[in-house]
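quick one
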Amino acid sequence: MIDFFDAADEIVAASASYVHALDDKSAWSGYVGSGVLAKTMPVSLGGEGLPFSSLVAAVEGLAYGGGDAAILFTMLAQILSVQHPILRFGTDEQKKAFLPPMIRGELRAAHAATEPEAGSDIFGMRTKAVRCPGGYRLTGTKRYITSAPVADVALVFASTDPARKTWGLSAFLVDLNAAGVSRTGNIKKMGLESAQFGGIQFEDCFVASERRLGAEGLGSAIFSSSLDLERSFIMAPAVGLMRRELELSVAEVNDRRQHGRTIGSFQSVSNRIADMALRLEMSRLLIYYAAALRDSARSTKYYSPLVKLALSEFYVASSLDAVRNKGAAGYLLNDPSAINVRDAIGSLFYSGTSDVLRNLIATYVGVNDV
Ligand SMILES: Cc1cc2nc3c(=O)[nH]c(=O)nc-3n(C[C@H](O)[C@H](O)[C@H](O)COP(=O)(O)OP(=O)(O)OC[C@H]3O[C@@H](n4cnc5c(N)ncnc54)[C@H](O)[C@@H]3O)c2cc1C
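structure w/ flavin-adenine dinucleotide:
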């Protein structure tokens, strides 16, 4: 069902052809040429019409080839949590207006759900959209939003009917330069440095009815569908990064000598390498299996939390192992392994924390009252 060899070929091709385009680590525009934003979008809208396995392989290749994990993360966030929801739930007019410029990298998009009182308890969000002539008036605060300081548009979740709670949520495509919108500048984080991050405030902001995505009350279904995609594929860069870390770590433990021997000859060090290899292969099996399910139109509802949970925890564990193998050299601020650890820790939170994913998985396998 899954052709790993084809995917592997694509990875090698991807890393070979993109590596030179990645010199400018801070520039989103430098990555648009990789075609990542276009991969899974329809040809009729300017995309490449390829399956999700191609997207994962391309991103794995870019990360393996030295691509900036933070930029790849922001691109995946846009693809999975904005472009695909528009493709699935949007009107023809919305698809034509938003997707071609997003695919070309000219229109940047954020996905704004999290609020001060609504993190893991996301359906506790308080942002409201009150009907008015021609549309809605939006009021509320979103925080921890990827790309918020630089995005042109955001897919914003707000309640159109608070009494109906989860079923009263709706989704809107909001122009972030419109009257009634203010945002923070870039808020510095522990890692994923080139991914801009911030909050958005809506104060009586007018949003036309034509900018509502899907029917009123469909917000939670749109949110759940985009989370399913995110959890399936947002960790794709980690596969390339874990592969790169493994190769570098092997070279380092074969080279570094202590006590008259290479450090790789100490079993506690070589065991770490074996664990890194195991985590890499488990990650590849999980994420390409999720892609195979999605590409053959089967549900990833049970599978996507497993993929996200495993890959984020493996990414943290393998990045730490790479640092351990280096000793103090891996603790230097700008050492690539130290950067990986800081980037990896963010993945324990976005698209559902590990705790929340475990709750879901336990529920799916039949545990009551989780
Ligand atoms: C790098 C990054 C990018 C992000 N990008 C976006 C974005 O683009 N758009 C967006 O909307 N949001 C984004 N987020 C926010 C992210 O979705 C939230 O951080 C996440 O949902 C957790 O919410 P919280 O941070 O408020 O933590 P809380 O929900 O307050 O959780 C705190 C702790 O309590 C635990 N906890 C909470 N509830 C439960 C429970 N029911 N069972 C067990 N444990 C529980 C958590 O696991 C965690 O350990 C981003 C976050 C990060 C770190």
